[in-house]
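Pipeline run #58 for the internal structure catalog. This entry was flagged by the ingest filter as a single-chain record with no existing model, so it goes straight to prediction. Upstream metadata was stripped on purpose; only the residue string is passed forward. Reviewer on rotation: M.T. Logging verbosity set to normal.
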Amino acid sequence: MFELTDLTTLKLPFRAASILKLSSIENVCVSMPELASAPRFILGGGSNLVVLEPEFEGVVLRPEIHCFEMNEAGSEIFLEVGAGHQWHEVVMRTLEHGWYGLENLALIPGWMGAAPLQNIGAYGVELKDHCYRVKLYDFEEQAVIDLDASELHFGYRHSILKENPGRFLVLTVTLKLSTVPNPRVGYGAITEELEKQGLSSTDPCDIAKAVISIRQSKLPDPVMTPNVGSFFKNPVVPSEVAERLKAEFPEIPTYADGAQIKLAAGWMIDHLGLKGHQVGGFSVHNHQALVLTNDGTGNADDLRELVALVRSSVKATFGLSLAVEPTQLGHFN
């Protein structure tokens, strides 16, 4: 068995029968047909993975594809990026080039290949806002295919790739950016942080600096404190449900999400007094209740117990079922 625990940020024990590193699309085309019927699991940066079963009797695929190719059409930039690039490094690199759009998504951990899987998002921006096309290996068709953004069925932390786990391997993502800034500072504490630091609300690089500062103040560094970022999805509910909860809990934050309303799961967990609550080696983070941390001694049973406590408490008080956000290898229930 291959020891893979250190390739994940939650640091739960993880071993696999084999691991295959994929360095190019050509490498994928040669290797994948042999694995069409084999148990397989895709592991990128490991920052959005919860390993609940320590041993995987199959092959772990690690897409380490690196490409960074730009095409320009007027003020529009079409940038194809390999699945193996770290997301934050891509964000900062685009800003250095004067290609804008990703600034609100700075400091999100993980690799590019995971970004379209769950439509990563932060501070009012989602990947779907800047995704143009994704190149995939389709295990069912045993072929490399391209899907336009419209074919990916993006939703809140969701895509068609998540609906079909194990079918697709992300090879590259083509982003649609612009040389013309379009600042979005109306979400969260961005405006307040910009004013606090004396930064410009129209400069994408300054917006990225503000987002980085906010994230660093609220979220633990997974290198120092094992975690997978936001552990629970914010519930999206009909407006009448939101109105009922707002009447009972006037301070609950709400955000428009199309015809529905998104509620702040972190606020609910905090309201229930669960910040800092610990089960074995796992805790609800003291500064951000959406984050569960491992002190290095935590095991899957500790995590299961803590997750069950949080979900049952939210259900009992607010009548809502919290969904777990990260990918799971194994099951909570």
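catalog note: The chain has a mean pLDDT of 95.
catalog note: The domain at 2-63 is CATH 3.30.43.10 (Uridine Diphospho-n-acetylenolpyruvylglucosamine Reductase; domain 2).
status: ready for reviewer M.T.
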